[in-house]
Specification:
This protein is mainly alpha-helical and about 300 residues long. Helix content is about 80%, strand content about 0%.
Length: about 300
């Protein structure tokens, strides 16, 4: 047995022993929804970090193998940076869509499906540059809907001053760390040892497992996480389509744009620079106009730091 396989097996054994202990010891303290969201986030992070562990190596060894090593490295890291930048930008829109239109449940499910489709696109099209960028764009859209809303959803099960809230989020973040720990071991091993497609496939299966158990545990979510106005959401507004389906179509429409931005990292960097300047400018103006002078000064200090 090689060392990588030994570490992989040891990691899974540790998690399979430790996680049930945590759940058994806390199940009478917290609502059941916590543990459903714990596993959903664990598998989503497994999917995401599994893909990310493969990404740069896959680009340098497969996608850009005809380039010189230095050029391939520079290209791969440029794409990786643009991809990560969009990953951090997309949740701003995803959070607004969930808060004002979809609700947390639908946003999580739709986002997870986009991420799974992106992972399977990467797995099934190894070596194809066009579909590679489409796959990353699908993951970006899915992450935007999924990532900001699952933690917000968890927060709805606890009041602001509930002493159990901190403990709940500690358990939830354990799920993130477990997924991030197992992902490189599993997907990285499969990708390097056997084939890159197996690594991406494992990542795709991971997010599907998370979605299945999220849906299976719907009964534990009580009346939380539903759309703020179901009638408004489901009312047909264009060609018989309601706002939920129009939102999904909107996500599909932006996928080619995201793919182009990830591919053209210089353009992406310019857009982010302009957006950053705009945000800083807005914050400066807001701090100056703030009637609470102390709060305004604090905001200026944050901007400077």
């Amino acid at each position: 047995m090689d060392s990588a396989l030994g570490l992989l097996i040891g990691g899974w054994i540790f998690v399979l022993v430790w996680v049930p202990i945590i759940i058994i010891s806390q199940r009478k303290i917290h609502p059941k929804a916590l543990f459903a969201l714990f596993f959903t986030e664990l598998w989503e992070r497994f999917s995401f970090y599994g893909m990310r562990a493969l990404l740069v190596l896959y680009m340098t060894k497969v996608l850009f193998e005809q380039m010189e090593q230095g050029q391939a490295d520079a290209r791969a890291y440029g794409i990786y940076g643009a991809f990560n930048a969009l990953l951090y930008a997309a949740p701003v829109i995803g959070g607004l869509l969930a808060d004002r239109l979809l609700g947390f449940r639908k946003a999580i499910i739709i986002g997870g499906l986009f991420m799974a489709l992106g992972q399977f696109t990467l797995a099934g099209t190894v070596g194809d540059q066009t579909l590679f960028f489409i796959g990353l764009a699908l993951i970006t859209v899915g992450n935007g809907l999924f990532k900001p809303n699952i933690s917000s959803f968890l927060g709805t099960f606890y009041s602001q001053d509930d002493p159990k809230k901190d403990g709940a989020f500690t358990i939830f973040y354990m799920g993130i760390n477990i997924g991030a720990f197992l992902a490189p071991l599993t997907c990285g091993y499969l990708g390097e040892k056997y084939d890159w497609s197996y690594g991406f496939l494992a990542a795709g299966i991971g997010i599907l497992v998370g979605l299945v158990q999220f849906y299976y545990n719907m009964k534990d979510y009580e009346d939380k996480g539903n759309p703020p106005d179901p009638e408004y959401l489901n009312k047909p507004v264009f060609l018989g389509l309601n706002r939920q389906w129009l939102t999904v179509l909107g996500c599909i429409v932006v996928i080619p744009l995201f793919a182009l931005l990830i591919n053209a990292e210089e353009v992406m960097n310019l857009i982010l620079f302009i957006a950053g300047i705009g945000i800083i400018g807005y914050l400066v103006v807001d701090s100056v106009r703030n009637e609470d002078k102390v709060e305004g000064q604090r905001l200026l200090v944050v901007i400077v730091l």
